[in-house]
Fold this protein.
Amino acid sequence: MFLEEKTAIVTGASRGIGKAIAVALAREGATVVINDLSQEAAEAAAAEIRANNGRAIAMAADVADSAQVETMVTRVMEECGRIDILVNNAGITRDTLLLRMKEEDWDAVLNVNLKGVFNCTKAVSRFMIKQRSGVIVNIASVVAVMGNIGQANYAAAKAGILGFTKAVARELASRGIRVNAVAPGYIQTDMTEKIPEEIKAKLIESIPLGFIGQPEDVAEAVLFLVSPAARYITGQTLHVNGGMVMV
Ligand code: NAI
């Protein structure tokens, strides 16, 4: 258990990929702060981890709102005394073709998926700098590097995350803080549940390994990046996509 005594915040962790990441971190001994929009949903995920002998606290906050993020991070410091890991996982989609994309669709996705990463990273790094240690993992997407019809907002936000990751990795490296991204491909969650069956079949054809990934596949990659085994890795993107895109 290499995360004993460590505190981790995972955003958007009440379900899907975020929940799998929280479960994996708790399994290694971390106290995990389950963030999500709804306190009730976050509490349910935290209770599940505690039922399996893990340590978890639920804290609702909208990552797009810097004041709510500040309050959450202050509370984590009060309750846990330190923050060792931040996983910026919260994300949304508002898919539609460019000409139909409303300004609200653009703003909503950029605010949660990109500004949310900025808000949380900024709030947490203040304490990590004082500790002179920390690890940040940002969840991007394969769409950041390949683009996708109907996802101009989402692709822009996710590609933004990759640039942000590299800039912040350079800024914080001398303070003992590593910053990396994980770019998942097609993972079975509520987010991908909405994709029509015929498009799903086409997607699977484009995956060399021939199957859809599970949230645990992403969680294992995150676990590696936060582990001491990755101590020499920063500013990188780890692609977890069954070979769908090879970069
Ligand atoms: P999901 O929709 O199942 O879960 C996302 C979670 O984030 C939800 O619990 C939601 O309530 C929460 N959330 C949304 N807005 C929030 C906000 N403003 N503040 C706090 N929490 C908020 O999605 P999934 O599939 O688990 O995705 C997780 C991350 O992985 C996202 O960043 C997504 O873009 C990314 N991703 C997912 C892929 C997939 O195939 N499922 C592929 C590539 C990336």
Q: What stands out?
A: The pocket of NAI is lined by residues 11-12, 14-18, 35-37, 62-64, 89-92, 112, 116, 139, 141, 184, 186-187, 189-192 (CB under 6 Å). The mean pLDDT is 98.
